[in-house]
Amino acid sequence: MYDLVIVGAGSGGYEGALYAHRRGMKVALVELSPETVGGNCLNRGCIPSKYMRHGAYLIDKFAKLKDYGVELKGYEVHMAPLKAGRDRVVFTIRENFKKFAQQIGIPIYYGKGVLKDSHTVEVQPSGELLRAKFILIATGSSTMSIGSLVPDGKYIYDTDQIWSLEDFPRRLLIVGGGAVGVEFAYIFRMYGSEVVLVELKDRLLPSPDIPEESSRYLARKLKRLGVDIRLRTTVESWERKSSGVRARLSDGSEVEVDFILLGVGRKPNTEGIGLEEVGVELEERGFVKVNEHCQTSIPNIYACGDITSPLMLAHKSMYEARVAINHMLGEGHMKRDERIVPKVIYSAYEVASVGLTEDQAEEEGYEYKVGVVSFVPNPKAMDDGENEGFVRLVVSEEGELLGCHILGPHAGELIHQVVHLMKAGLKADFLSTSMYSHPSLSEVIVQAGMEVHFGPITWAKRH
Known about the structure:
Layout: E1 2-7, H1 11-22, E2 27-31, H2 39-44, H3 46-62, H4 79-103, E3 108-110, E4 112-117, E5 120-124, E6 128-137, E7 141-143, E8 156-157, E9 171-175, H5 179-190, E10 194-199, H6 212-225, E11 228-231, E12 235-241, E13 244-249, E14 254-257, E15 259-262, E16 266-268, H7 275-278, E17 301-303, H8 314-328, E18 343-346, E19 350-355, H9 358-363, E20 368-374, H10 379-383, E21 390-396, E22 401-408, H11 411-424, H12 428-432, H13 443-453
Parallel strand pairs: 1-2, 1-6, 2-3, 6-17, 8-15, 9-10, 9-15, 10-11
Antiparallel strand pairs: 4-5, 5-6, 7-16, 12-13, 13-14, 18-19, 19-22, 20-21, 21-22
Helix pairs in contact: 1-8, 3-4, 3-5
C-alpha cells in the first residue's frame, strides 16, 4: 500500500515523486518503458530541441565574431555529432533520474497504468495491482495529425519522429507558426536548410497570450535569416515525388521539399486508462476537469500537466504536481493559477510572456498603463552584440503587475523576476525602487517599472 501512486514519469510525474518523497510520502511511479522515463519534454521535446536551438544560436553568433576581433575561415555543419551530443544529454538526464529514484527508494513500475478503482492502478500487461491512498495522473500528451497530413516518418514528420533524421534537409515545409514551428524554422535555417513556414492565422505565435509586437519582431528576424513565411496559408494537397514532396498551398503556389514537418499542437493522453470508468470527469476536448488544487471529480485522484488544459508546458506540470501533493497533505496554500505560468519560446529571439497582454487587460475591464523599454541602448546587451528587443510591462492603475512580455536576449531567464513579483502580490512601486547590477540585462525590467510608476521619460516639455 502506497501513500501515492503516480501514473506517468514525465516532468510532472518525476517532480511529483521527488516532492512527495521529500514530504515523507511513500510513493511509486508507473511509466510505459525505461526509454520513456522523463516523458515528452525530455525525450522528444524541450530538452533535445533546446540543445539543437543552442547550436543554431551559436551559428547565429558566429557571424558577429569579427566584431570581437576574431576572424575565422568559415565552418561546416554535420548532423552526426549534433545528434550524438543531443542524445547524450537526454540519455544522461534520464538515466540519472532512474538511478536517483532507485537510491532513494522510489520504485518505477514499467507498463501502462490503468485505474481499476479510485485506489487501485493496474500495471499492464503484467497485471500487477498497486494500491494507494492517493493517485496522481500525469500521462502527458501526444502529437496530432491534420487533414491529409498524417505523419509517416518519411514524407511527413511530427515532433516525435523528427529526431530520427540522419542529415539536414535541403528544403522543408513546416506547418504551424506556433512555438514548435518557429523553433524548428530557426534551427533548420541556421543549419543551412531552406525553410518554408506556413501559418493559418494572420501572424506567427497566434496565441492571445503573446502580444502582436512580439510576433512582428520575430517574423522580421526570421525573414532576415531567409525563412519564407506564408501567413493565412494552409496545405491544400500534397504528393510524393522522387525527391521528396510537392505541396500545393492555399496561396496558389507549389513548393517542392524533402519533407513536411507538422507543428500543429497536441492532444491529452486521457483515453484508455480507466478515468471515465472510475468516475473522473473529462471536458469535451478530453482534458481532465480539475479544481484549483488539481483535484478531479474523485476527491483522492488528482491530475497535472498536459491533461489539465491546452497550456502544455513542462514547468506547469511540475508545479501542478506540487500543488496536488500539498493538498493531499492537508495544505491548501499552493493553488493552480495559469495566469502566473511563464511561457517561453526559443527561436531567432527568445520570446517570454506571463500574465495579461494589453488586449486581455482591456477585455477584462482594467484601466492599465504600459511601460516599454528597449534593449537597444542597454550596455550589457550592446557588449554581447544582442541589443534587440524589449520589455513590455502591463500594470493596472493601482500598480498591480498584470503581465510582462519580453523579447530579446535571455528573455526566458529574465521573465522569472516578474513571475515571482506577481506571485507575491508586489506592485510596480516595489519594482521601481529595486536595485539591479550594472551592466545587466535585468536593468531593463526595473526601467520598465519606473516607466509605469513614475511616468515615461520624454524630451518634450511637460505642461
